[in-house]
Amino acid sequence: MEEATEQLKKSKSKNVLKKVAAKVDGMWKEPDLLVLHIGENLYEQLIYHLNLLSGVKKEGEKRPLPPMAPWKKFQMFLRRVIQNPVFEWAVMLVILAAGIIAGVTASASSTKTSGWEKDSELAFMIVFSIELGIKFFSFLDRELSFFFGAEKWWNLFDLAVVVIGFIPSSSPGAAVAVRLCRLMRIMRLVRMIKPLQIVILSLIAGVNSIIYVALFMIIMFFVYAVAAVQVFRRNDPFHFGKLSSGVVTLFTVSFLEDWRPVFDINYNGCDINLYGDVDDARYYSSVIGMEWSQNISSTICPNPQRQRVFAVIFFFSYILVSGMVLVSAFVGIIVTSMQSASETVAKKLEIQQRIDKIAHYFQLSHEAVKNTGDVYTLLDSGFQGAITEGLLLQKMEILDIPTNEEFLKRTFATVNGITDTPFDEADFLLLTALAERARKTQTKMAQDDDDDEEEEGLYDDEGTFVASKNLKDLIESHRNIGKQGKRAMFKRAPKDKV
Fold it and tell me: CB count, 10 Å around CB of 303?
């Protein structure tokens, strides 16, 4: 669900940015006016990224990697631990065990907590507290990512679950409340199981279509209910005496449940049975669940009336529209929306997965990733979710930025392995990160600083791509996830040359 919240938040912020970018798209012929429309900060980020990708060295325009203090290295190690599949599966098993025990104790007749339940709950609390402590320390930075980062709502949910676990439950009422709150732990599985995330996010993404169909159904229920109350209320006060009862009756009829007795009562009259004989509302009383007597017949059926023509037209048209056409359309729209939303959400999750891996490898802050994403959205003014080498060269030319087309062509091919292929947001982030790494290396070489052997550029004088095996494995993993859906992980190894 955190991914759902984050995607909705991003969509809202990007809608604002898209409105700005739409204005900017018509003003590239007057580049001097760009800063007036997008703001100074965003304009500086735009110029910085285009200068960086131009392949031409610019002094004073580099964003160096932050220094790695010992505690920071330990923090990065813990972050790798919590992102490890083994750790995630271990936590998932603990959550399942906690859910099973919560289900077993919920069926217990006693409201008091037994000894084994206390011991198991203490063990779960220790595990969840350790996990929460590791997460809190691993995301302890200037941005306070634990509370304000991409997974803030899930982190706050985990914190609330752990805090609730420490609430004393001495009284029976408090024990029941705490047990119910502890059941929320099972919801954490949504966060850890990616296919389940796609289902939830798909439902959220398809809410708009579902709302409009539901709104149409409500309008139809209201119109038919008003008509039925006006015509049938004297003959059938139980089903159509009030608007509320009429809506409930029609809602039941729309699923073809017990529609025939309602039709017969209003077709023949409330004092006629199925065989066409007058029975003083005996059949009517059995339908509405009341015991018949001579006194009650005049109360439940005071004004029997036949509405044969209207009843046939009304019920058959309503059943045809609601029970067959509308319900089928409702299901079809849900299935179509789910399929379309699943593809969109799966693509967004895949892009976000690559962005997270790139940000982790290059130690990019949340602000740096956000700035690069904003620049990408501005460059992608057509909102196709992809930019090309030609588009970048065009923007650089408009803003009078000197370019090295060969450098840009090589980096494009390096990132995705295919020339002239459009870039998505994750590709653009990797492209920027590689260019930053190359700029930093070139600056140190110009200053005759050879102490840092871990630095790496993009290409040597012979045009050969130079990188550590870590970086090459990252790029290969990026290609696999983005183009083939594979999840290749990279391992640390010494630098080499291709």
Answer: 12
Query: pLDDT tens digit string along 455-491?
Result: 444 554 544 555 556 666 667 666 665 554 433 333 3
| Shared-domain flag, residues 137 and 241 | no
Q: What digits encode the pLDDT tens for the residues 44-84?
A: 778 777 777 776 654 334 334 445 577 777 877 787 788 77
In terms of domains, do 382 and 421 share one? yes
Number of domains, the chain: 3
The whole-angstrom distance between residue 232's C-alpha and the CA centroid of its chain comes to 47
The pTM score is 0.48
**In Å, how far are 48, 157, 438, 443, 454 from 447, measured between CA atoms?**
22, 50, 14, 6, 16
Q: Return the amino acid letter for 127.
A: V
Least confident piece of the model among 213-217, 312-316, 475-479: 475-479
CA 165 to chain CA mean position, Å: 28
Q: Match 């991914």 to its residue by tokens.
A: 3
Distance CA 49, CA 375 (A): 8
Q: For residue 115, what are the contacts with CB-CB under 8 A and spacing of at least 6?
A: none
Give the domain extent around 466. Answer: 2-64+362-497
* Main-chain dihedrals φ then ψ at residue 94, nearest 5 degrees: -65, -40
| Distance, CA of 433 to CA of 89 (rounded, Å) | 31
CATH number at residue 290: 1.10.287.70
- Determine which helix (DSSP H) or strand (DSSP E) holds 17, and give its type and residue range: helix 2-25
Of the pLDDT bands very low, low, confident and very high (cuts 50, 70, 90), residue 306 is confident
CA dihedral 154, 160, 166, 171 (to 10 degrees): -130
Between 386 and 284, residue with greater pLDDT: 284
Q: How far apart are CA 129 and CA 106, in angstroms?
A: 23
Six-digit token string for 25: 């798209």
Q: Is 308 exposed, middle or buried (CB count within 10 Å of its CB: 0-12, 13-18, 19+)? A: exposed
The rounded percent of the chain whose pLDDT value lies above 70 is: 65
